[in-house]
Amino acid sequence: AIDSDWNNAKNWDCDLIPSFINNAVINNVITTYPILNSGNEGNTKNLTISNGSSLTITNNTLNISGNITNSGTLDARNASIGLLGNSSQTIPANTFLNNRIKDLIVNNSSGVILNGSLEITGYLLAKNGDLNISNNVTLISDASQTALIDGSGNGNILGTVKLQRYLDTALGYKYFSSPFNSSTVQDFSGYVDLTASFPQVYSYNENNKSSNNEDISGWVSHTNPGASLSALEGYAFNFGASGTYTTVELSGNVNNGSFSRQVSNNNGKYTQGFNLVGNPYPSPIDWNASGWTKTNVDDAIYFFNATDQYTGTYSSFVNNVSNTGASTPGIIPSMQGFFIHVSDEGDPETKSVGTLGVNNTVRINDFSQSFYKTSEIAPKELIRIVADINGNSSQDAMAFYFDSFAQKGFDKDKDALKLMNIGANIPNIYSFDTKKNKLSIKALPEK
Fold it and tell me: Which run of H or E residues covers position 80?
């Protein structure tokens, strides 16, 4: 009657904005249809949109406590939808325009059932009560952001989720991990050549030995299509030489809750206490969060960035310092594999074991994390040295920074070791501590 504003009472019968005790009925008898794009969140009991009419929600939230009946157009591509009923609710098939919304929030102890395909570009949160999705939800990933499942809820996602991971350059080896509880190598068959003569998939065994019980590289061929991808494990998948962008889409029952694995340092000649682990969740995680168990584990993490099909560089992060100046380097994206190092307990000749554990409190809602971010951050006071070979685009970097509690030797919570880069035209630059450990990040005493 007045304008398109949902929150203008004069646009509604009886001058009442819909609430949880009354219904929103949008009939095809007018030329101006409601838009919820400012002011308070929208609330309604039942929502009915008749044929030829529409409701558009942009940068706002519509909470529904009853039924949804849509014969018109419901555009929530840039909006949040909350299901907040007291009895079981259903989202009918084809409820939303293009079957796509930004966020979906379930806060209904009796649960919600999704009866048709739905794409989510933001987050999915089962705050209270379960969401039964069958095989209907896809978490979208593109160049702008990657959708996620919020780990703070008390409910469960029941059914198979399709989870995407956009890669801006599908080049060489990418360190992946699985966010599902039953993934296999076969899930990557559409993206990686599992039949290639040179293995394109590897797992990593820190205590790898030859048939003569001699120390060898930790990389182990993992190309059997039926081989499992375990939670909290990392794997190297080779995406070839093209370097074009691609979107990996995997599906399964998503991981949730606590995970733990034993890691080791067997003083191997080549493995040297490094273990390839991975993010087990369908959301980014924060290495600095309190929900980690890092028993006998150094506080640095290490990422790999391919420079061609078989070579690449490693970056490191510790104590909010990155050797390369990477943006938010302590945030580990969904599906991301990375290296950690098990402490040698002060004696590099001693074998040791550790535990890496994680729970939902480390999960964060960060939508922009790609597999490797290189934009500069505002660092601590530091000296960063960057090297290349004859102007080659592949560089290596190391950093010194200053900390009043730093020691001259290796500080497991302040220093990062050096993982050697792979490639003839890629330099390796590092410093030494007092025990001749090679370091990519070194904290120096202020005096």
Answer: strand 73-83
Nearest Cα neighbor of 164 from 116, 109, 120, 110 is 120
Q: Beta partners for 312?
A: 306, 422
Q: Is the pLDDT of residue 378 over 70?
A: no
Pairing of strands 157-167, 131-139: parallel
Cα gap 116→9, rounded to integer Å: 33
Task: Supply 347's token pair.
Answer: 């004696």
Q: What is the DSSP letter of 225?
A: T
Strand order in the sheet with 312-318: 274-278, 337-341, 301-306, 312-318, 321-322
What tokens appear for 225 in the block?
């299509």
pLDDT digits (tens, 9 = 90+) for 129-181: 999 999 999 999 999 999 999 999 999 999 999 999 999 999 999 999 999 99
Question: In this structure, are residues 387 and 398 in contact, taking their beta carbons and an 8 Å threshold?
Answer: no
Tokens of 192: 């990686």
Task: Give Cα 89 distance to the centre of its chain.
Answer: 29
State pLDDT tens for residues 324-375.
987 667 899 999 999 999 998 656 667 899 999 999 999 999 877 665 544 4
What Å distances lie between residue 383 and 74, 227, 232, 398, CA to CA?
54, 44, 34, 8
